[in-house]
Amino acid sequence: MSRALITGGSGVIGAAIAHLLAQAGHHIYVHAHANLPQAERVAAEIIAKGGAAQAVCFDITDHAQTAQALAQILKAGPIQILVNNAGIHDDAVLPGMRQEQWARVIDVSLNGFFNVTQPLLLPMLRTRFGRIINISSVAALMGNRGQANYAAAKAGLHGATRALALELASRGITVNTVAPGIIASPTAEKSFPPEVIKKLVPMQRAGQPEEVAELVAFLASERASYISGQLISINGAMA
Questions:
Q1: Cβ partners under 8 Å of residue 3, min gap 6
Q2: Minimal CA–CA distance to 84: which of 136, 47, 46?
Q3: Smallest Cα–Cα separation from 188: which of 203, 202, 205?
Q4: Which residues are catalytic?
Q5: Strand partners, 6
Q6: What is the pLDDT of residue 190?
């Protein structure tokens, strides 16, 4: 049984990914920072369905705290599937954006990526199998008003994905980016009413979290062993 860590696993997309990877037979670590109770609910749901899961809580922007938490996880064995899903919004047009808004969003997506991924690589390399999937956004491809910080942070993951894929390719480890568009969630429903979605999305609907999870689960499988260094969009033909 491979062991999978999903950062931001308490969110809508993270939870869908956790459930689907659990169905594929993996032991799931459902990560949260501010919303541990929800991560615990996701883990309990997986266990109730016969899967293996546990919730873990740490701040991925805190290098020392993350290293300590991962050291505990690694005591049980290497993580072979890593989904870097954690990310935050703190929107403002750039002329009015505060420095802390810029820094916090970059910190979670990019420094968080490093803090989580780097300590897991050597144990993963020793197994000669691994799947790293970084969750980006259509905002990194198209830009979005009020989200220069978020677009920059997620676009940075694309470059990191490509470089890391080259570094790990000979060791049986793939690294890919998935860039969702508008995905159904309570937050999306507030920001994107149906009439707006019909204008923005050629398919005229929001995507479902399970659709993103299906793509991630495929990339995490043996069937995707020759796909690496790629940016794969799932956005209803937006971009």
A1: 26, 27, 29, 76, 77, 78, 79, 80, 81
A2: 136
A3: 205
A4: 150
A5: 30, 83
A6: 81
Per the document, the length of the chain is 239
As a whole number of angstroms, the distance between CA 20 and CA 2 comes to 14
CA 76/CA 222 separation, integer angstroms: 23
pLDDT tens string 44-54: 999 999 999 99
Distance (Å, whole) CA 158 – CA 177: 7
Token readout for 93 is 């047009």
Q: Is 22 helix (H, G, I), strand (E, B) or coil?
A: helix
Please choose, from the candidates 88, 69, 202, 205, the residue with its C-alpha nearest in 3D space to the C-alpha of residue 135: 88
Which secondary-structure segment (H or E) carries 29?
Answer: strand 27-32
- CA neighbours closer than 13 Å in the CB half-sphere of residue 110: 18
CB half-sphere exposure, 141, CA atoms < 13 A: 17
Q: Which of helix, strand or coil describes residue 160?
A: helix
CB 152 within 8 Å of CB 101: no
CA distances from 127 to 67, 70, 136, 156, 220 (A): 20, 17, 27, 28, 15
User: Among 26-35, 128-137, 191-200, which is the least confidently predicted range?
Assistant: 191-200
What are 81's two structure tokens?
Answer: 């599937």
Q: What is the pLDDT of residues 83-102, one digit of tens each?
A: 999 999 999 999 999 999 99
Query: pTM, whole model, 2 decimals?
Result: 0.97
Domains of the chain: 3-234 (3.40.50.720)
